[in-house]
């Protein structure tokens, strides 16, 4: 709502904001030439009419009055809010008068928690403990050091608890992290678990943060498969080749050898390496076994122009 001979326009950035974070207001005031403003300023006031910030208005060449960007903090309460921008100027006799006012509407939302999980084991033996790394970032980059996280099984029971470290992950500005330990279910298969925030420890509102994760459980291994990766042309071992016998994984050592403990049964063994063509074969594991894979070097790509030359 506007009043007086002047017209006050407010550009708000953003119009949806995390609780307690900054809002920027750009203010322009237009007045009839005969009604110029003397010693004018603009006052930003909250719903209780308390002044939050004040800035002087300067007249530009085109006759528009403008103020430098005004930055105010959003309230800590979620929901729609209304501030007012009030134009004040010195009138006749030196008294201050309100020349115009404009309502500023915006929405305050809770801070969002962005969770990530890594180093999840490809498979865990039934009943054994395992560890995963968890990171949390607040959309407003709040300090989350000491915030408690939990890992919950598919029945909703808490399987592990940890507090985030006070430091952030190297190379990031606000990713707080921790390693959390839990015990795998006693039954083999894929289990739908969840990592989530436990009771936010913050004065500002935050949305419940959670992230699903899959816990793959296998029976206790009773066989060991030794996989050897060899360069077919050079007949030399390949270090660092990846070996996958789903859901088991391993990497070859400097001798080109990887040992994978598995339960008896049929498997597809996939061996791949940097600059090598992957190779896959099917096996039936009934006891300890040794198998070798001779990989061909991946030929560099050659453009058609180079071939013609």
Describe the protein.
The protein has one helix spanning 304-308, and strands at 7-13, 16-18, 22-30, 41-45, 51-56, 58-59, 65-66, 70-73, 79-90, 96-109, 113-118, 124-125, 129-138, 148-152, 158-163, 176-183, 189-197, 210-218, 223-231, 242-245, 248-251, 257-262, 265-272, 279-285, 289-295. It is mainly beta and 309 residues long. The chain contains one helix and 25 strands. Helices cover 2% and strands 53% of the residues. It is elongated. Strand 6 and strand 7 form a beta hairpin.
The CATH superfamily label of the largest domain reads: C2 domain
Nearest-integer average pLDDT = 90
Strand content: over 45%
CATH topology of the largest domain, which one?
Answer: Immunoglobulin-like
Q: How many DSSP E strands?
A: 25
Judging from the principal axes of the Cα atoms, what is the shape? elongated
Query: Assembly state here?
Result: single chain
List low-confidence stretches: none
Give the domain tally. Answer: 3
What CATH architecture of the largest domain do you see? Answer: Sandwich
Radius of gyration: 32 Å
Helix run count: 1
Instruction: Compute the separation of the termini in Å.
Output: 75 Å
Strand-and-helix sequence, N→C? EEEEEEEEEEEEEEEEEEEEEEEEEH
Q: Percentage of helical residues?
A: under 10%
Structural class: mainly beta
CATH class of the largest domain: Mainly Beta
Biggest β-sheet description: 5 strands, antiparallel
């Amino acid at each position: 709502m506007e009043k007086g001979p002047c017209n006050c326009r407010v550009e708000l950035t953003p119009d949806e904001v995390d609780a307690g974070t900054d809002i920027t207001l750009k203010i322009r005031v237009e007045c009839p030439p005969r009604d110029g403003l003397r010693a004018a300023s603009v006052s930003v006031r909250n719903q209780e009419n308390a002044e939050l910030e004040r800035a002087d208005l300067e007249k530009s060449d085109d006759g528009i009055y403008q103020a430098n960007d005004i930055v105010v903090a959003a309230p800590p309460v979620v929901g729609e809010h209304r501030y007012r921008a009030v134009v004040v100027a010195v009138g006749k006799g030196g008294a201050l008068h309100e020349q115009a006012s404009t309502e500023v509407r915006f929405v305050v939302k809770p801070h969002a928690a962005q969770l990530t999980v890594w180093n999840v084991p490809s498979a865990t033996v039934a009943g054994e403990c395992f560890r995963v790394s968890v990171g949390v970032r607040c959309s407003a980059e709040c300090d989350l050091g000491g915030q408690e996280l939990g890992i919950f099984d598919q029945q909703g029971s808490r399987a592990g608890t940890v507090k985030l470290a006070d430091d952030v992950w190297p190379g990031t500005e606000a990713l707080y992290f921790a390693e959390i330990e839990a015990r795998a279910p006693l039954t083999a298969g894929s289990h739908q678990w969840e990592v989530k925030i436990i009771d936010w420890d913050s004065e500002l509102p935050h949305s419940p943060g959670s992230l699903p994760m899959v816990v793959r459980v296998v029976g206790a291994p009773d066989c060991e498969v030794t996989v050897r990766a060899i360069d077919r042309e050079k007949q030399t071992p390949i270090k660092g080749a990846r070996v996958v016998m789903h859901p088991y994984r391993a990497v070859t050592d400097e001798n080109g050898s990887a040992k994978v403990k598995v339960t008896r049964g049929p498997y597809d063994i996939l061996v791949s390496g940097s600059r090598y063509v992957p190779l896959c074969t099917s096996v039936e594991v009934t006891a300890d076994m040794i198998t070798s894979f001779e990989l061909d070097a991946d030929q560099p790509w050659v453009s058609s122009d180079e071939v013609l030359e």
